[in-house]
Inverse folding.
């Protein structure tokens, strides 16, 4: 018998742990990730591996510095997941140092400085992405067309090494704007939408993911599949994804109906760019989203609203990272004001009073 | 009996679905434990004031004889579980995690098991008035046998202060592992139903809702069969979800109303009693037997043969383990009650008491020791909490030492069901935090009360002393005055005498 008999129960536990949670998130990211890696070839694979290795190394370094036990915290999988998510949002042929700087920003600045797992106010991957986008706008907006592994135009292994780790101009040959980026540029030049969208990827291509974009954001369908798996596994609830996507779709439909010439339609908003990735994997980040259901709905709606506003009126074609970070900043406030109603009390916290005290139930 | 299908159930928030592990002992019929060589009967086995002993060392007692009588309004008497000789009235380790010594009567059975019929069996219980039923229940020493151990007669008398309409019988048995109520309903359905009818009469209610979780279909069938003649009893199948057996949540599921915070279910016209309590009421009134035994489930992977046993109150728990074939391996922990809300046991020497429903010997596989990780704010605890609390935030405040703000967050509305800690992926012992805070708050309150009382007494004393001094001073002044007057008079007298001489 153990000596610690004074700890209160329960003396049984669900099969849950942080590493299981993180593992399931990674599992659900796997289809979209594999597709992204296949579609963008060896340079994407190098970038992906570099980001994760750098994140894990940065985590180990920080834990060592903080004097925390390294093994249990590294084994929880949170650093791998942060690296994974960051890599998903990088241009697939970005150079290695983008991955490295991003990893250091995510793990050290956005996570460990705040006190490590569970303590960070902002989503680490998004902090890194935003900082990279502002600091290195050129590298962070240079996207390339899909060149699937083993296809004719795909760079070979050695050439790919040069793209990621050396200085190769190979990307110039296949560079291509993202759908949202292209539409933004055309709208900026005064080209009407119906005309501008003739050259973008078809809806099917966007759904399946055969379009240019960040490493893991292109396949809306596979991301959606992974997201539904997470809801099924009860790692996340439907509230944030649904409220975010519905808000985004409603706003897009409204403006598109008012002026189809100037406003991108809801389908493009939902299925191109990082909307699906964000709704299921980034906005739902457990640490930085509200804990109550009403709070989560408000948080999701806020994300949807901000994504639409930034994409439509701000300078950037994509606004997911900014939107999530702005809402992250609101999370403590949302949690403070939107709490579940306590059993036997009204919303104000006063005990319930029944007008028909003790009356018959029928 | 009305059918259950027409009754609409109401949804409660939160809850968890732990592996119920009831198969270990569910098919074991109730067996009677052989007479132990010594019985240790604590004087306090209930909420309220401890009973006052009426026997002394060396006394010979009969089975069912009153050993200690109730003291005060909320209390319960204690009876001899068998005939024998009183070995002493003194301290013995309590059936409590602390294992502290409590006043206990030790009885050495003589093996004759002779009854003393001090409670008359009632030939026609239908003629009893509510007062008579409550009185007999009180005299039989019956307490809530689901584990709460609140004196049942006090609850039966609630009709005097509340307008009641429904009696709810709690046969949910939502704790994993435990099967004693299940077996009782299957094997003694008639007695249980008769007990229920008596309680309904005592409470003067017309409806009885008998809630049984759907993982006990045999118990549901047995009770339905036993209650088919009765129009007022409705057997209701409850969804299998922990904590369905929590009194307030059970009532909400059945009648759709939440009990107001800090209130009783009687506030919404409902009283809840446990299945085992119903059987005890039957025994007390139909047979004239006080509460001297109960059914317990002895189970867990470390127990050789898990069983349901009828044990005499006061039986040391190691007798139960021995009867079930002992341990097949050193257990990781010993629990009194279920694994969700049960209490760790300091040793097997402690006796079975009126509220003990289970003895669990869990293996290391069942109760793994895990390290606590930081909270990742996953909100699992928020979604699992049946009371609408935010456990992670409460724990944060308690960790930071601000207990008052945790109270504002609803600490005192927590029923300690353990759902939050059960689902926590970081394995944070949330219930431990809450129990600590509740205990700390209670002791602060006591300290504050003591301080106030001391201050009041000290002030009263000062006042009293002041008054005494004042009185003394006044008396002194009066005496002085009198002395002075006397002197004056004497002087005058002397002067007069001197003048006269």
């Amino acid at each position: 018998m153990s000596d610690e008999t004074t700890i209160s129960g329960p003396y049984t536990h669900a099969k849950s742990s942080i590493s299981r949670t993180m593992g399931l998130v990674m599992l659900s990211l796997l289809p979209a990730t594999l597709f992204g890696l296949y579609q963008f070839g060896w340079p994407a694979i190098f970038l992906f591996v570099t980001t994760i290795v750098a994140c894990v190394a940065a985590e180990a370094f920080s834990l060592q510095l903080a004097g925390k036990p390294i093994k249990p915290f590294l084994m929880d999988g949170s650093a791998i997941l942060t690296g994974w998510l960051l890599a998903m949002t990088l241009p697939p042929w970005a150079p290695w140092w983008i991955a490295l700087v991003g990893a250091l920003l995510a793990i050290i600045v956005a996570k460990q400085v705040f006190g490590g797992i569970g303590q960070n106010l902002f989503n680490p991957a998004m902090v890194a992405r935003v900082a990279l986008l502002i600091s290195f706008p050129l590298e962070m907006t240079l996207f390339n067309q899909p060149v699937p592994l083993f296809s004719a135009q795909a760079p070979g292994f050695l050439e790919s090494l040069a793209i990621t780790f050396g200085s190769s101009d190979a990307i110039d040959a296949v560079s291509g704007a993202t759908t949202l980026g292209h539409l933004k540029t055309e709208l900026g030049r005064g080209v009407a939408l119906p005309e501008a969208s003739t050259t973008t990827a078809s809806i099917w291509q966007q759904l399946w993911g055969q379009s240019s974009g960040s490493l893991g954001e292109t396949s809306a369908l596979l991301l959606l599949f992974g997201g539904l798996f997470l809801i099924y596994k009860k790692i996340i609830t439907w509230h944030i994804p649904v409220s975010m996507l519905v808000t985004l779709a409603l706003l897009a439909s409204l403006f598109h109906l008012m002026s189809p010439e100037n406003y991108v339609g809801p389908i493009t908003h939902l299925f191109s760019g990082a909307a699906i990735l964000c709704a299921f994997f980034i906005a739902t980040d457990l640490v930085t989203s509200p804990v109550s259901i009403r709070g989560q709905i408000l948080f999701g709606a806020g994300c949807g609203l901000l994504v639409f506003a930034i994409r439509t009126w701000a300078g950037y074609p994509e606004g997911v990272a900014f939107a999530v970070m702005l809402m992250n900043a609101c999370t403590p406030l949302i949690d403070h004001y939107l709490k579940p109603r306590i059993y036997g009390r009204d919303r104000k916290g006063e005990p319930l009073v029944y007008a028909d005290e003790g009356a018959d139930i029928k | 009996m009305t059918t259950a299908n027409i009754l609409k159930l109401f949804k409660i928030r939160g809850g968890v679905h732990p592996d119920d592990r009831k198969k270990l002992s569910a098919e074991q019929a109730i067996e009677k434990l052989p007479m132990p060589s010594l019985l240790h009967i604590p004087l306090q086995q209930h909420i309220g004031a401890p009973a006052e002993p009426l026997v002394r060392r060396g006394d010979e007692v009969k089975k069912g004889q009153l050993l200690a009588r109730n003291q005060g309004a909320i209390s319960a008497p204690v009876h001899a579980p068998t005939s024998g000789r009183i070995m002493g009235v003194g301290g013995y380790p309590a059936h409590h995690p602390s294992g502290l010594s409590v006043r206990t009567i030790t009885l050495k059975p003589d093996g004759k098991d002779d009854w003393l019929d001090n409670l008359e069996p009632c030939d026609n219980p239908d003629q009893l008035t509510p007062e008579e039923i409550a009185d007999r229940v009180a005299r039989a020493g019956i307490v809530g046998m689901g584990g709460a151990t609140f004196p049942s007669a006090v609850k039966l008398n609630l009709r005097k202060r509340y307008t009641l309409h429904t009696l709810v019988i709690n046969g949910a048995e939502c704790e994993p592992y435990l099967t004693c109520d299940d077996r009782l309903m299957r094997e003694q359905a008639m007695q249980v139903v008769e007990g229920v009818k008596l309680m309904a009469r005592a409470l003067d209610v017309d409806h009885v809702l008998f809630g049984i979780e759907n993982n006990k279909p045999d118990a549901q069938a047995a009770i339905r069969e036993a209650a088919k003649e009765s129009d007022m009893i409705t057997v209701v199948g409850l969804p299998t979800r922990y904590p369905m057996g929590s009194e307030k949540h059970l009532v909400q599921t059945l009648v759709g109303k939440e009990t107001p915070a800090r209130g009783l279910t009687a506030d919404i016209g409902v009283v809840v009693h446990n299945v085992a309590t119903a059987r005890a009421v039957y025994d007390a009134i139909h047979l004239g037997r006080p509460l001297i035994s109960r059914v317990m489930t002895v189970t867990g992977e470390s127990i050789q043969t898990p069983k349901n046993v009828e044990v005499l109150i006061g039986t040391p728990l190691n007798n139960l383990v021995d009867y079930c074939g002992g341990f097949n391996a050193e257990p990781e922990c010993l629990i009194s009650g279920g694994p969700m809300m049960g209490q760790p046991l300091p040793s097997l020497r402690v006796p079975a008491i009126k509220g003990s429903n289970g003895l669990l010997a869990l293996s290391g596989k069942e109760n793994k020791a895990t390290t606590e990780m930081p909270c990742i704010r996953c909100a699992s605890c928020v979604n699992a909490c049946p009371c609408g609390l935010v456990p992670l935030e409460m724990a944060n405040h308690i960790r930071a030492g601000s207990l008052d703000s945790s109270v504002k967050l609803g600490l005192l509305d927590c029923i300690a069901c353990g759902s939050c800690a059960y689902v926590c992926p970081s394995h944070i012992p949330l219930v431990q935090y809450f129990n600590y805070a509740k205990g700390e708050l209670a002791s602060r309150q006591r300290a504050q009360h003591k301080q106030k009382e001391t201050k009041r007494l000290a002030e009263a004393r000062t006042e009293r002393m002041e008054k005494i001094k004042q009185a003394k001073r006044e008396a002194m002044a009066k005496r002085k005055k009198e002395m002075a007057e006397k002197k004056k008079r004497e002087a005058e007298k002397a002067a007069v005498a001197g003048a006269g001489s």
Remarks:
- The mean pLDDT of chain A is 88.
